[in-house]
Design brief:
Two copies of one chain form a homodimer. By secondary structure, the first copy, chain A, is of the alpha/beta class. Chain A has three domains: 283 residues, Rossmann fold (3-Layer(aba) Sandwich), CATH 3.40.50.2000; 160 residues, 3-Layer(aba) Sandwich (Rossmann fold), CATH 3.40.50; 36 residues. Chain A is built from 19 helices and 13 strands. A seven-stranded parallel beta sheet of chain A has the order 3-2-1-4-5-6-7, with helices on both faces. The longest helix of chain A has 34 residues. Chain A is globular. The first copy, chain A, starts with 13 loop residues before the first helix and ends in a 16-residue tail after the last helix. Chains A, B: Belongs to the UDP-glycosyltransferase family. Chains A, B: It holds the Pfam family UDPGT. Chains A, B: One of its GO terms (molecular function) is glucuronosyltransferase activity. Chains A, B: This is Glucuronosyltransferase. Chains A, B: It comes from Catharus ustulatus.
């Protein structure tokens, strides 16, 4: 492996950057191993890994034999796949995901909070068991470990929500980097990453709050921080600590400490999307790294024809993401009816049963080139479930949105876009035909939504280095320097009460209380000198 | 003025960056106005302003007729100077600075803390009065204000320690940016900038502590935070609030609020120097922006000859900065004697009386090309007072240091370098000949110091965009977008007790106390049902 530190590049010496870029594929050749992250997370990480391959690095992905979106049988893939033969079948995994989606789309809204929490705990157990089984296939396979050690990887890339990456990095004795979107209440970022998050203006993720909160919202946010901390400790950290301790032969709190040793946290958002908040030097916000200019649509395609006859009204792009395949008849008819009332052509990615109320202006497709459509000059609006990937493509191209969030970070994502004036939210569970039609008319015909979407787009485009290049830079930095310890805060060496200076406060309180007590005793006995004995010492 | 948003540039499309850079001087032409910052601050900011001029911007510097280092009579300067005719003379300013230096170099170490504090307060009053007189020359000159308004500046650059910039920006109705190194205890950054600083691992500036503190150090740090907060409010904020209120006709706390509206804080340090700590998205760490590769020394110069005969032992570069011109005879002789014991050639920048103990290996110069000497391959060590500018040149070139800090941030700066293993500190007041000789021998002959200095150098050089380009980027960003509001945290809209969630805690405490009180009352009356009246309502 031959590394060459990049020169300090800038607009003043563009030829240096040019020469450096030309040399990249020759002089850089690192070995990257990836702990699997699935579903929409994989869609994002894949773009980063493809870029690493383009720059001359070797990428090996550890992939469970049963998974959602990682096609390890694709012979044209630029990655080397190391398949982990997990004991659960593809059907079991699909059924678990179906249950998960069904609960959040159809059941959760009718339940009490404690019922939701209980189901969350049960769902977490299901996925935790699968994660442990995935880990087992590696940590109990000494042959595979030896093979991976011999490969002499330079860095491991993981997602903290897909537990195990930090364990593998420890076993292989290599530094690791996280690619990360969010955890419930920011609890992983806060407790493991050390990310400071004042609950007064940093809304807990999944709450759908903004950075400007009323007293009641701040109270709600504060309590949710506590709730998620307890949930994390009880149902996640404690659950994994035993497993990690067994594997590594170390003491408790091992998961939290392991996660804290991530060299860099590549966060999949940026300040076009995020509310400004404190962060640490080893956190890099690379949201939009997967975005790219739209490619022209093939001239003979159905899509091209559909757009061609949209006229001055333009088109609307509609998708509920890579995980939601179908809707109830009632819901799909409500949506289709609303869409049929619009003068725009609607291009809907949907695999479910064709709704009866589908209008002539609406075309359904199994798959659409989402980024190319969002970048089309005739696109007027984007109807989205609020997944970060799609939402970033809308930001990139400056398209206003109608959000129909369902689960995970989707409520949060749409709340951000609503607060920034680039989206209108519609409630998935209570939505009526008119609600959706009104929302679409608002974002299309009230020009402030388009203006605000374009503002966000400008922020995304106007960065000193584009997100994909920044992400690659820090991965290569970690490979070059075998880590980035100079960016890791000393907070990780403190206990929680030391971090919050509670021991200092307790000491100061004790000193003050002692002084007050002595003064009180003296004043009670009438005279300060009464407190002192003949030799001037304090007497009780 | 014609702005063009830069493309998203990166190693993948170097030709884009090249094309962009080539177009810079044609398409960018902003108007920048600078509120004066003096002494070593000016040395640093001047480099940034020169770069702005090189990129086609017009730079106007508002400069007091009496100042320390801003030579507004230099006809070759690339800046336009607008001279503010201040009522204090050059002699008065020089004498005040002489008093300031004399106090910190010769008197402070023999005084009690409260005596030091009292003198600090008196010194602050002297400089505050001069600052107010400087502000007066502008805010009371409607002709000048009109002239500046007509110039239609796009951005103002200031240093928060040189108060007034934010006031001028408000009058001219333009966004402003800070270039900043530090304030006592980080108080300006914390209270005005909203920078989160947990006292458990973020050492207050000027304390000389590191990020890893014992309990007593954390206690000391915590108390210093409180002390500096009170000092700031009492002797700085309150002092300026009246002045700002008079000028702007607004309510109190005006200074703190004004400072909070800075679009970007360009901090003159980086993570090679800083201990990792939380920061905000509108803080950009651009330390080392003034550093550049060493130029070869002229072959016929005295310096070139001196270095030429240094042989294998190499040279030592020695300066106490741009403000310290001479030392007491005793001190200069202690230093000269220590230097005479070394086999290296010593190049000493010093304007004072030639010490009697000066060795033949030591040459004294009025001025030295410090950066070129530190970048010379024969340079073995740097003796420095610990000013940030010089220290960054040593980091840039990977030279180990002996620090003799005297005042301001110098103790802090050297403490950072000592903690990072690239320097040894010597106490200016108690230093003996052998102490200095030992310190120099340590950093020269114990190879870990050189290795650590080179590590810091690598961190400085290995950045995605070099500091000067990042600083220019954000200034141009603010000009392009008329601000950077999307980076400003909502913390600025909260009171201190809201920020720390104290109102939420008080509410929760009150609720808990009420419940406990009711339960206690019930249990005291023997039976819960006794607390309830016949209608089930709670009775007292």
């Amino acid at each position: 492996m031959a590394f060459k530190a990049p020169s300090m590049l800038g607009p003043k010496f563009p030829w240096l950057l040019w020469a450096y870029a030309c040399c990249c594929s020759i002089s850089f050749c690192g070995r990257v191993v990836v702990w699997p992250t699935d579903a929409s997370h994989w869609i994002n990480v894949k773009v980063l890994l493809q870029e690493l391959v383009l720059r001359g690095h070797e990428v090996t992905v550890l992939v469970p034999s049963s998974n959602l979106l990682i096609n390890y049988q694709d012979t044209s893939s630029p990655f080397t796949f190391e398949v982990l033969q997990v004991p659960f079948s593809q059907e079991t995994l699909d059924a678990s995901m179906e249950d998960f989606l069904n609960f959040w789309m159809n059941e959760a809204s009718n339940l009490f909070p404690w019922e939701i929490m209980w189901t969350m705990k049960e769902q977490l157990e299901v996925f935790t068991n699968m994660s442990k089984q995935t880990c087992d296939t590696l940590v109990m396979n000494s042959h595979l470990i030896a093979k991976l050690q011999q490969a002499k990887f330079d860095v491991l890339i993981a997602d903290p929500l897909s537990v195990g990456g930090e364990l593998v990095a420890e076993i292989l004795e290599i530094p690791f980097i996280y690619s990360f979107r969010f955890s419930d209440g920011n609890v992983v970022e806060r407790l493991c990453g050390g990310l400071p998050s004042p609950p007064s203006y940093v809304p807990a993720s999944t709450m759908g709050l903004t950075h400007q909160m009323s007293f009641m919202e701040r109270l709600q946010n504060f309590l949710f921080y506590i709730f998620t901390d307890l949930f994390f400790v009880k149902f996640w950290r404690d659950e994994w600590d035993g497993y990690y301790s067994n594997v590594l032969g170390k003491a408790a709190e091992i998961l939290q400490r392991q996660l804290a040793t991530s060299e860099i946290w590549l966060i999949r958002t940026y300040w076009d999307f995020e509310f400004p908040r404190p962060f640490l030097p080893n956190f890099e916000f690379v949201g939009g790294l997967h975005c790219q200019p739209a490619k022209p649509l093939p001239k003979v395609s159905q899509l091209h024809s559909a757009i061609g006859c949209s006229g001055e009204h333009g088109i609307i792009v509609f998708t509920l993401g890579s995980m939601v395949y179908n809707l109830s008849d009632e819901k799909s008819n409500v949506i289709a009816k609303a869409l049929s009332q619009l003068p725009q052509k609607v291009l809907w990615r949907y695999k479910g049963k064709k709704p009866e109320t589908l209008g002539s202006n609406t075309k359904i497709y199994d798959w659409i080139p989402q980024n190319d459509l969002l970048g089309h000059p005739l696109t007027k609006a984007f109807i989205t479930h609020g997944g970060t990937n799609g939402l970033y493509e809308a930001i990139y191209h400056g398209i206003p949105m109608v959000g129909i969030p369902m689960f995970a970070d989707q409520h949060d994502n749409i709340a951000h876009m609503v607060a920034k004036g680039a989206a209108v939210q519609v409630d998935f569970n209570t939505m009526k035909t008119q609600d959706l039609a009104d929302a679409l008319n608002t974002v299309i015909y009230n020009s402030t939504y388009k203006e605000n979407a374009l503002k966000l787009s400008k922020i995304q485009h106007d960065q000193p280095v584009k997100p994909l290049d920044r992400a690659v830079f820090w991965i290569e930095f970690v490979m070059r320097h075998k880590g980035a310890k100079h960016l890791r805060p000393a907070a990780h060496h403190l206990t929680w009460y030391q971090y919050h200076s509670l021991d200092v406060l307790a000491f100061l309180f004790t000193c003050t209380a002692t002084i007050v007590f002595i003064l009180f005793k003296c004043s009670a006995s009438g005279n300060y000198t009464d407190c002192l004995g003949a030799n001037g010492r304090l007497e009780s």
